[in-house]
Amino acid sequence: MYEPLVRPEPHFEHIFGDSTGFLVTFTGEQARFRDPDARPNELADTRQRSWPYPEKAEEAAEHLVSHAQRERDAYFAVHLFREGGSRRATNAAATVRSLWLDEDGGHFPETGPEPTAIVQSSAGRRHLYWRLAQPVSAEWGVAMNRRIATWANGDITKAGLASVLRAPGTVNCKRHPRIDDVVGELTGAGPWEPSVIEQAVPQPPEPPPSLQRPAGRAEPYDGPELELEVFLEDVEVLGEVPDKLGTKYAVLCPWASEHTGGDRSGTYVGHRACGGLWFACHHVHCQGRSWREFKERVAPAPRSAKRRTITFPTTNRRNPRKIVIRYD
């Protein structure tokens, strides 16, 4: 049974549920109203505000509607934030209650799970939402948003936690002097179990080999021969992952407690066919961490002594020095 969405408040309630945090609104005027040479859809006089949610949901909604009545484009962040004043992903709340998609000229397949909410952002353009039966980690939500966007040939850049989309009850001034009303509807579908979405939405196709290399050393490795298994003795290995560049394992990140929501996915280690070992974690909290940090974190000190030196002969004939590793 379809229920029309003509105001922002019921839309907020649908996608945020009983979550708490800060709701961010963003408004702006089409720059070409004042400058004919401005780029298409360039916004001027932009204003961003944070509202405690759910306490100030009605005030946030009225703020968006009032700006729309003055022919200003009005958006809201589709994810809540821990503190006010910032729309950065690092400030995002730990969990999400809904997934979202900006079709942007694409089309979500009819065979997929039916959206629980649909917003018409303009003629022929839609934003889709899937209310979930329970909260999921923000990282899982973003990863699934990307899978959905890839499947639908939609805008994958809107999959992230800092994304803003149009709210029902506002207007779209992008094609001024034509003004499109932003309207929506609750479809009556769902809420969806995350496991059902996981099974229904296909994994994106593998990128070309040139894009599969993890962060770190990519050139031929001429260092000491190290066995990856030595560093996995005290690491939970979740399974081996196919990789054309060598051996690759999905593992529990040593810094998983720092991940938003304690998410266990998105962490890999491997042994390239050319000899080098690597570590990659896709979580925001682990950005910049490489094999060196992973090795130092997981390599246990020898139990028989406080200090031990292991010497490896180098395979570089032009530089026959030896590599020394010390465990303190």
Q: How would you describe this structure to a colleague?
A:
- By secondary structure, the protein is an alpha+beta fold.
- The chain folds into two domains: 3-200, Alpha-Beta Plaits; 209-327.
- 16% of the residues lie in helices and 30% in strands.
- It contains five helices and 17 strands.
- A five-stranded antiparallel beta sheet has the order 1-11-6-7-5, with helices on both faces.
- Mean pLDDT is 83; it is low at 210-219 and 301-328.
Category from helices, strands and their pairing:
alpha+beta
CATH fold assignment of the largest domain: Alpha-Beta Plaits
Distance between the termini: 66 Å
The fraction of residues assigned to DSSP E strands is: 25-35%
CATH superfamily of the largest domain: RepB DNA-primase, N-terminal domain
**Overall 3D shape:** elongated
String of helices and strands: EHEEHEEEEHEEEEHEEEEHEE
Biggest beta sheet attributes: 5 strands, antiparallel
Task: Output the CATH class name of the largest domain.
Answer: Alpha Beta
Query: What is the residue-mean pLDDT, rounded to a whole number?
Result: 83
- Return residue spans where pLDDT drops below 50 for at least 5 consecutive residues: 210-219, 301-328
Please count the helical segments. Answer: 5
Would you count the extended β strands for me? 17
Name of the CATH architecture of the largest domain: 2-Layer Sandwich
Total domains: 2
Radius of gyration: 24 Å
Helix content range: 10-25%
> Strand arrangement, largest sheet?
1-11-6-7-5
